[in-house]
Design goal:
The protein has helices at residues 3-17, 26-35, 39-54, 68-77, 80-96. The longest helix is centred in the C-terminal third of the chain and has 17 residues, at 80-96. The chain is an all-alpha fold and 97 residues long. The chain contains 5 helices and no strands. Helix 3 packs antiparallel against helix 5.
Length: 97
């Protein structure tokens, strides 16, 4: 799986859910934060992918626009995964600064 693509979709979904307009290109931000090898980002991605698969969502959907209703249900049932997304956003913002 392409971690940068997963991070891109994760960041897009979370920023849209928070109604935040990104100040830079989300794909570039995701690629940068993933390429840093930050253990916080690596851990967040592992938790997100594991939770996604455990909930029965198809893995190939991780790298395309997330199905909003299914993903919202995932985060309702697994709110700790929102924390993982927020950790990635925090690191992405720090790496973009």
């Amino acid at each position: 799986m392409n971690h940068a693509m997963i991070a891109t979709e994760a960041l897009r979904w979370r920023l849209a859910a928070l109604e935040v307009e990104p100040r830079s290109d989300v794909a570039a931000m995701a690629a940068q934060v993933v390429s840093c090898g930050d253990p916080v980002v690596d851990s967040a991605l592992r938790r997100l992918v594991s939770g996604w698969i455990c909930e029965g969502l198809r893995p190939e959907l991780l790298t395309s626009t997330w199905p909003d209703e299914a993903v919202r249900g995932l985060f309702v049932r697994r709110p700790e995964l929102l924390d993982a997304l927020d950790e990635m956003i925090g690191r992405a913002v720090l790496s973009a600064a």
